[in-house]
Amino acid sequence: MNVNQVAENLALSHQEELVDLPKNYPLSENEDEGDRDGERKHQKLLEAISSLDGKNRRKLAERSEASLKVSEFSVSSEGSGEKLVLADLLEPVKTSSSLATIKKQLNRVKSKKVVELPLNKEKIEQIHREVAFSKTSQVLSKWDPIILKNQQAEQLVFPLGKEQPAIAPIEHALSGWKARTPLEQEIFNLLHKNKQPVTDPLLTPMEKASLQAMSLEEAKMHRAELQRARALQSYYEAKARKEKKIKSKKYHRVVKKGKAKKALKEFEQLQKVNPTVALEEMEKIENARMMERMSLKHQNSGKWAKSKAIMAKYDLEARQAMQEQLAQNKELTQKLQVASESEEEEGGTEVEELLVPHVVNEVQMNVDGPNPWMFRSCTSDTKEAATQEDPEQLPELAAHEVSASGAEERPVAEEEILLREFEERQSLRKRSELNQDAEPASSQETKDSSSQEVLSELRALSQKLKEKHQSRKQKASSEGTVPQVQREEPAPEEAEPLLLQRSERVQTLEELEELGKEDCFQNKELPRPVLEGQQSERTPNNRPDAPKEKKEKEQLINLQNFLTTQSPSMRSLAVPTIIEELEDEEERDQRQMIKEAFAGDDVIRDFLKEKREAVEASKPKDVDLTLPGWGEWGGVGLKPSAKKRRQFLIKAPEGPPRKDKNLPNVIISEKRNIHAAAHQVQVLPYPFTHHRQFERTIQTPIGSTWNTQRAFQKLTTPKVVTKPGHIIKPIKAEDVGYQSSSRSDLPVIQRNPKRITTRHNKEEKLAGCSVSRL
Amino acid sequence: MQWPPPWRRSPLVSATPPPGPTTGLLCPRRVSEAGDSSTEGARTGHSHYVTPAESAMERRSQPFPSLRPASPTNAPAHGRGSDCTAKEPPLANVCRQNYGAAQDPVEPAGRRSASHVTGSSLGKAEVACGRRWRWAELVANSSWSPAGRATEMKVKMLSRNPDNYVRETKLDLQRVPRNYDPALHPFEVPREYVRALNATKLERVFAKPFLASLDGHRDGVNCLAKHPENLATVLSGACDGEVRIWNLTQRNCIRTIQAHEGFVRGICTRFCGTSFFTVGDDKTVKQWKMDGPGCGDEEEPLHTILGKTVYTGIDHHWKEAVFATCGQQVDIWDEQRTNPICSMTWGFDSISSVKFNPIETFLLGSCASDRNIVLYDMRQATPLKKVILDMRTNTICWNPMEAFIFTAANEDYNLYTFDMRALDTPVMVHMDHVSAVLDVDYSPTGKEFVSASFDKSIRIFPVDKSRSREVYHTKRMQHVICVKWTSDSKYIMCGSDEMNIRLWKANASEKLGVLTSREKAAKDYNQKLKEKFQHYPHIKRIARHRHLPKSIYSQIQEQRIMKEARRRKEVNRIKHSKPGSVPIVSEKKKHVVAVVK
């Protein structure tokens, strides 16, 4: 070994120490190639050196890893002492990142808390039991409805399951049959030839056809019916032909009218009797109306109408004729009352109005035509005129109307509808009155109030319509801002009358309360006259322009006024006495009130009467055994003689004196019979809730003396019927229609075959020995 | 009640024609009936003769006509509407019989009455129910004149249509002409009451429940079993280890087996009836063939299982080859194996009986001597719940028609019916016995059960009543150890200490054997009457009356006094303590100590 080498080795080893490189660092190639001996020596040297310093070295010496000997050019397997296989070389490629997963697992384990102790056995068992119990009770509760049904059943026939007789149907028997003898074969051949069916409906096609065919009687009836129908038809045809030939226009008109009337009548009747059919009819009418609306037939637009229109201004007759035509149109296009008025119709009416020539309307003003529509428009015209007369009112109203008509014609239409309805219901006279009322109105308030009243009346008349109004208004509001603004105005108008009335009511009620109160009587002295004054002021204001209904409403108020006016006159005397008097009055009033409330029931007299009746009823009655006509001359109106009557009248013996004879305020019933009581039920038996129920069940006879055979049988059916000699098996799920659990009832362990087999052999042996021992 | 009815009276009394509805002279509305076909005749007869009944009904104040299920007014309509005209007596016929001469136009009397009225009304008279306008019509018809009469007179022929009175086949009901007019059958309530009273009395007279006593055992009969397929076969095990098989029809023993040493504790038959199992004091379970061994062969069990402990009871599964025994624990066995499939315990006391649920067959109930009843689920091999009662339960029995109901026979003289889903309160407490109840068995209809008691009697309880409806005892019958209700629900068997098996009727006064239809109808009617009037004091008293042996009677009296004293004490305690401090416990809850989950 040369020194150089040693030095090198030393240096290397030192280096190793410093860097902590793997021990057998690959040396230079030439050395390696030099000789093995050298290397071994070097190893020894290394060991010697390493043994020089303490523990550290020893450890290093122990390390022997294959990697040290790995060289770039050759593969040596010296360090491991094993033969190298190619697979070993390939392996590291795969398992390069195996450490990461291990780390992960380690982390996971670290992050987990301490595992809980398992529950003790008893607790576990209890949980098992509870779960099992809930499961079982759930299973059992499927029987609830069946048990309830059986308990409530009128009759239960046991055994429950219907025992089907074990007779196989003929088809099955046939299918299993094999023809063996020649006779049988022949028979089968015949059967098959004739297409004799083997399966269920045992009918040949011929038989089926014959079954489907009509019976003779039926056919005869059918034919007779047909004949009759034909005869009737020909008769009606002939009649119609005859009628058609009649040329008289008047006749046809009359017939038409008659038909229309008849149809109307029938329709009315139908409405009462059969609303659904009536509805259908209505639809027909509606159709006719639509047709009319579409056509220009009665719209004053024809040639004739135009010619008349020219004349109309001067000729009354022509005017009337036109009016008639229009009236007819109106009549035809009028919607039936039953149908709710819809927006459609409004549109229609508007169109109608447009269609009507303006000239005619103007002319119509003075005439009392039969067309209410025309009249309405004219009145509105007059109203407008009236409003225009008023100079103060003008701007506002004008603004109203501008907003109303300008933005959209909806509100106008509404008013029109309202008014129209109103007109339909009220007479012409009333309307004219209204107009008259409206005309003298000078202030805007009155105008408003009158219009309110009109509105309120109308509302009262058409409550159904109101809702539609609102909905319509909502629509209008959605359409634009202008109508909204315009809507805001009428809305309070509508709400007002109700509110107003309410406030008035409140006033009167307050007054009533004041009347009732004694304490604050004097305090109220002063304000009252003022109030009265107000009221009196108000009433005359209201009266003239208020219509009849309004007046009626206000009569109440007037009455109050009347009452209040009475009291001041009393008050003119000294105050305390008045109070007393008033108190007296109060009492008297109260007494009067009570008297009035209980008028007609005199309790004492009623009781006395009752008692008298009870006494009468309890008295034994005489028995009259007279037979009229017996031993005398017979005839109408003959009465038995007094002597006979006396002779045959058996006087009832007087009973013992009543127990309540000397007790004026008590009725002691003596109906109770002690002897009968022994046979009577004292306490209401259990299932009954009222004695009347019980009495009814008793009063219903069930015997065949009172009932027909069938009813008797039905009434006496026993609740439970058992057949003698038949075994009644416990109820089964299949009997009731439930599916029986297909799983076997054997415990879960038993159904696991693996565990058993091993045990089984042992058991067999055991059993064998036990038997043998015996 | 008017008698005779007004329409019968009037023609005799007044010579004038009937002016109004009150004198409802009955003249025929339609006379030309003879030509009609038979059925139509019957029908027109109906429409024709409904009227008197109706008018009678109107006159008569009917308290509750609506509730009468088939009041006479309905009856004709009933007949008319359905196809039962053939079976029910046609009313035309009926009326002819009952009203007699005054009504039938055909008979001479009828003619007389008619002439009495109108002279010629035979033809067109329609005066039914006395309508004035009809009368006016008659007058207007000018049939008064003799000439008119001559023209309109129709001679009626006597006609008897056999369809009206001959039945079509022998199986049909006889047509008994009946008139259901309630006026003719007054006092229905009192009459039915008397009938009910008589029926009750007769029931008591005929109440002879004891049928036979099967003697042969040489020790007390400890257990009984029914054959599942054969009604006549009964098995019994005695205290000396002997098992006997009996034939009930011949009332004799057909086979005797010395099965065990010591008691035969339990016996049960296989569901198919081919074999049976016994358990005994010798710690064995044995399976036997139902048929006896051939000539010369020895009696040998099919299988024998040797156990470590005594088995005190056995019951066989209702569908599968599995049986359960009880002793120290409940064991479930496969028939083929000698070790139990599973054994379930809960507590350490000995279990006296185990029973399979007949409907939900995986359920078991057992009762142990530590006063509890335990329910098991065989499928999950776990106990379900335990209820602890005041005293020990001797045995339980499942209701064969209601899956979750069972009744427990308790030592405290009572029986408790439980709904197994709610064990904390029994559905019903049945008390009447005066000593420990040893056995209980349900009727196969599930409506009643029978209980055997140490007080030498057996009692029959309705399931929904707390008191028994029947008590059976005889002078010689000692403590009754076991009882069974036969599978046809007609008989009861009980085995008692003094070595006898007794056969009783389940219904004491029932007539045995085939009943004719009339007998059956009478029986049903009487039964319904008894039911209807059961609350009436006399009837109740008679129906409840039973003769009891002195021992039982005095015991009952004594216990009544004791119970009353206890009750009084409780009331006093409640009365004298702060309100609410003494809880009021209902009778049902009193006996349940606890329910263990």
Output the structural class of chain B: alpha+beta
Number of strands of chain A: 4
Question: Helicity range of the residues of chain B?
Answer: 10-25%
Basic shape of chain A: extended
Mean pLDDT of chain A: 67
Helix content of chain A: 55-70%
CATH H-level superfamily title of the domain at 210-512 in chain B: YVTN repeat-like/Quinoprotein amine dehydrogenase
Distance between the termini of chain B: 69 Å
Strands ordered across the widest β-sheet of chain A: 1-4
Quaternary status: heterodimer
- Please mark out the parts of chain A with pLDDT under 50 across 5 or more consecutive residues, or reply none: 15-33, 338-409, 431-435, 437-450, 464-468, 475-577, 752-774
The largest sheet of chain A, given as strand count, sense and whether it forms a barrel, is: 2 strands, parallel
| CA radius of gyration of chain A | 59 Å
Helix run count of chain A: 37
What would your notes on this structure say?
The complex is a heterodimer of chains A (about 775) and B (about 600). Chain A has about 775 residues and is mainly alpha-helical. Chain A is about 65% helix and about 0% strand. In chain A, the strands form 2 sheets. In chain A, strands 1-4 form a two-stranded parallel ribbon. A two-stranded antiparallel ribbon of chain A has the order 2-3. Chain A is extended, with a radius of gyration of 59 Å. In chain B, about 25% of the residues lie in helices and about 25% in strands. In chain B, the strands form 7 sheets. Chain B has a 5-stranded antiparallel beta sheet with strand order 14-15-16-17-29. A 4-stranded antiparallel beta sheet of chain B has the order 1-28-27-26, with no helix packed on it. A 4-stranded antiparallel beta sheet of chain B has the order 2-3-4-5, with no helix packed on it. In chain B, helix 8 (about 190-205) crosses helix 9 (about 515-530). The radius of gyration of chain B is 35 Å and the shape is globular. The interface between A and B is large, with 83 and 91 residues. Chain B: It is found in: Nucleus, Nucleolus.
